[in-house]
Amino acid sequence: MTTRKIIQPQDLICMDDFVGTHQYRVDLAYARNNNLLFGERIYRENAKLWLHESLANIVKNAATYCFENHNLRFILYDGLRTTDAQKAMMKTQRALDNPHWLEKPRLLSPPGAGGHPRAMAIDIGLETLCGELINMGTAFDYLSEDPEKNPAHRDFSHSQGIMDNRKMLDNSMKQAAKSLNTPLHPLPEEWWDFRLPADIYEQYAPLSESELPTHMQLLNV
């Protein structure tokens, strides 16, 4: 069995630290008690958004590209999601009421699965510089009751305007990844989710709260 690499705290970038120098803002969804998905706070209120440096560089460059070419700003909703945070999500009433979300094609990842617990996935929305949300067809974190008819899916047919909006976000991320010679995988089921490919992130062990310094932890300590 291949031993997975360990992500060190110094490999992670706090995206909050670059808000003043890049055209994005951080709205850490699960640090709010009114998030769409669970309706309750998962992270502590003062939690920060952390990304592995390889993905952080893509996001920073993509935000600049999107601003310069479309005059729009990124909203960063979530990055690192520790295994403990994933477990907390599984215990929410909303997740308990929808066990099919864990069935393939999964709309929620079980603890340790996916790019988020390795800080190699990012959830992004778009807004104008005045703070008006750009219409992407669904809200961020919209989970369909019918996976076969999921309007958040990248292949779902929307109006041309919505498809153009999604394309602006996709192209910004793809251009940035290409410029850095880093592969990128836009998750098909969620227009907001961009991650490193599985053959990259699965080389690394997922992160738990105990492996992080206190200031980097997401949950209440």
Number of strands: 7
Question: Shape, please?
Answer: globular
Give the SSE string.
EEEHEHHEHEEH
User: How much β-strand is present in the residues?
Assistant: 5-15%
Textual characterization of the structure:
Helices cover 25% and strands 12% of the residues. The protein has 5 helices and 7 strands; from the N terminus they run βββαβααβαββα. It has helices spanning 53-70, 83-90, 93-97, 160-179, 198-201, and strands at residues 12-14, 24-26, 50-52, 73-78, 121-127, 185-186, 193-195. It has a 5-stranded mixed beta sheet, with helices on one face. Helix 1 (53-70) crosses helix 4. It starts with 11 loop residues before the first strand and ends in a 20-residue tail after the last helix. The model has no long low-confidence stretch (mean pLDDT 94).
Question: Would you spell out the secondary-structure blueprint of this structure?
Answer:
Blueprint (H helix, E strand, L loop, with lengths): L11 E3 L9 E3 L23 E3 H18 L2 E6 L4 H8 L2 H5 L23 E7 L32 H20 L5 E2 L6 E3 L2 H4 L20
Parallel strand pairs: 2-4
Antiparallel strand pairs: 1-3, 4-5, 5-7, 6-7
Helix pairs in contact: 1-4
